[in-house]
Design goal:
It is a single chain. The longest helix is centred in the middle third of the chain and has 25 residues, at 49-73. The chain is mainly alpha-helical. It is built from nine helices and no strands. The chain has one domain: Tetracycline Repressor, domain 2. The chain has helices spanning 6-19, 28-35, 39-45, 49-73, 78-88, 93-106, 110-130, 134-152, 161-172.
Length: 173
């Protein structure tokens, strides 16, 4: 596997620092050190902290676009895909980027708020494209979001995702 680019390593480091509790006050020096890149190398890719925020926001958009594409072609259907990935990705790259974006939005970064809004719209539209009733699509979305939140909070899984999928599939019929 090829080594990630310095840009990717910097975004990874920034996200890890944001998510690990350092928060939105993390310094450029700390990001460079965590990525193993010189501050000059960081400034080459991200000339300011706002540029780093924009990088995280763009990355979230890329992750969401890939997820929307997968949801759109999921052979198991939108309900099973949404609920299964909601419980399975609690430690994945999408989750880390999402959490980092939440922290940045909470600290008042408009680009992060916009990225979260765009992610919400993209996921909702993808579900509505495969589930005819928009209210039922929202119900599926909210159940998946609840499962995702349980995973983020580190709550024990109940193992009832297949039963939830079946119940929602019955409601959709």
């Amino acid at each position: 596997m090829p080594r990630p680019s310095n840009r990717a390593r910097l975004l990874d480091a920034y996200e890890e620092l944001l998510v690990s509790g350092v928060g939105a006050t993390v310094t450029l020096d700390a990001v460079a050190a965590a990525a193993g890149v010189s501050k000059g190398g960081l400034l080459y890719h991200f000339p300011s902290k706002d540029a780093l925020v924009d990088g995280v926001a763009e990355r979230l958009g890329e992750h969401v676009a890939a997820d929307v594409e997968a949801l759109g072609s999921a052979p198991e259907g939108p309900v099973a895909y949404w609920l299964t990935t909601s419980t399975a990705d609690a430690q994945g790259e999408l989750t880390r980027t999402y959490q980092a974006t939440l922290r940045l939005a909470g600290a008042g970064h408009a680009a992060a708020r916009t990225a979260l809004l765009e992610a919400d719209r993209a996921w909702s539209a993808a579900l509505e494209a495969r589930i005819a009733d928009p209210v039922l699509a929202r119900l599926v979305r909210l159940v998946g979001d609840g499962l995702y939140l349980e995973g983020l909070a580190g709550l024990p899984t109940r193992g009832d995702t297949p039963a939830l999928v079946e119940l929602l599939e019955q409601v959709l019929r």
